[in-house]
Design goal:
about 625 residues; alpha/beta; 3 domains; three-stranded antiparallel beta sheet; about 60% helix; about 5% strand
Amino acid sequence: MRLGLAGAWKLLLLLSFFALLWALGVLLFGGFDIRLHGIRLASRDPYRPAELALAAALAAFILGPDLPASQAIRARRIATYSVRTMPILLAIVVLFLALGFGSRAAGGADSYGYLSQAQFWLKHELPLTQPFVASVPWPNADWAFTPLGYIPGTVSHTLVPVYPSGLPIIMAGFARVFGDCGPYYVTPVAGAALVLLTYLLGRRVAGPAAGTLAALFMATSPTMLFQLMMPMTDVTVATLWTASVLWAFGTTALSSGGSGAAGALAILVRPNLAPLAVVPLAVIIWQTNHTPRALVRGLTFCATLIPGFVIAAAINSQFYGSPWVSGYGTLRSIYALANVRPNVERYPIWFMETQGVLIVVGFLAGLFRLTRGREDGSPWRVLFLFWIAVMLVPYLFYIAFDAWWYLRFVLPAFPAIFIVAADGVLWTTSRLSFRWRTVAVMIASAAMASHGWRFASAHGLTGLGVAEQHYADVGHFIANRLPSNAVCLAMQHSGSIRYYSHCTTLRYDILDPQWLDRSLSYLVQQGYHPYIVLDNWEREAFRSRFGEHSAVALLNWTPVAELPDRGETRIYDPLDSVSGLRQVGSTTIPRLSRVPCAGSDAHQLSLMSLSSAAR
């Protein structure tokens, strides 16, 4: 009987190992669907093999024999080693997930704004100049020729970025090292680093097991995973602030300097989170117990942090005319007391929906340990609560949005939340025996991680990169198929068209409703060929804006080209609506099997530079 149990125990462990490999393979490579001797073998769902791996591991752990003392020590060492290597595996999975499914396109406002700004920093071309706007007759011409992600500068006929320069500068550095695809590597690398840093910080304050659980929660957080797919600031700034807090727990002046440097870079990436700098500073003061050494470490931290403030203020002054004004506007235009109520109502609900109730229960259990006194190591929990409060409170006054993924704004607080939650889970099960505590923690952590991953998958996580590709598809079609004197009326594609093609864009959503026909006539008279580029959801807005003043707004003729999915983009030639020449079907925009990383240098051309070709 004992021999049978021992054999079953080993078989279950082997089954768990191979089921885990199976789940990872399906997750990273999309599964398989093959026929072998007429038998179909298919696997597209990573959940089932993952659940099988967990069930087999739990069964093996429960049925496993009581080991002799010497073997028990060895088994615990192996378990400890496994716990410490799991975050590395999680980071690798996160990295490959982002590289495999993440966006490689400059689409919409955010990604175009960051990626194009990175190119302009490389070429030292900011602010951008558009002198041709001076001769354009319609009102708000500077704004009308400003793509998403940019605003008119303080100097006439210039453009400056809306978004902070920190991430584009990092992207420019990656481009120097890795070439055209370098900017797209920043977020995947930052995501993998965020998982590892969460583990290291959790291990530092609450032990290896808590660090590993926190890393697992981070790697399966829907908010983190969604932002992992986009070349945006959220994951990067969370990584930098986590690094800053981790290094603040060090014991040397070098670690304090590293903490300040990470904070300085985080301030450049997202300046409105500058108040978070008080968190690593508080850690340094607490770590040194207010001794004279605290002054040295505090000054070292400040010396490396202050350049972040100085550079951010200098960029704001150059681009927006004041160190206190950003591309988003003044503080009064961004923060308001009226936003507190909707944000207080939405953020907790979004967090519970995305992360699950068990995470909240674990977090509350972690907070309850504060009542146990200093013998439980409560000071770091107080510091982490301070971290969460400093992160959350400003965003309660921030512009209120109505979609769960805006939890991304508070992603820098997630490491603290997850570490407290992991510590709470371990503390709650601490009275159980080693075997049953391990079983309980495995079940609870698996349930939490499974909830996060299932939520992200249900909301189209792995399809985000594919959805963004249509911006590049349309931009490359315009670059290759439309004439060099084209001018594209667009809104959603106003930036991506510039990034991928020679076509200057005119924002129809800024253009005065009475000026559509006159602006088209002006462009034709000047020797340009206007086109209208709209996604499916934009067409009704276009008709509503111009319908009372222009027959062109009806869009009741065959488009030049269309992309039938990924937003159903259509390109219209207004001259066809006048001549009625186009009676044949439109051209289907080809889909790029792999989006080229680089944009076209031609996106920097202006109307004035095209004048000779047009005439």
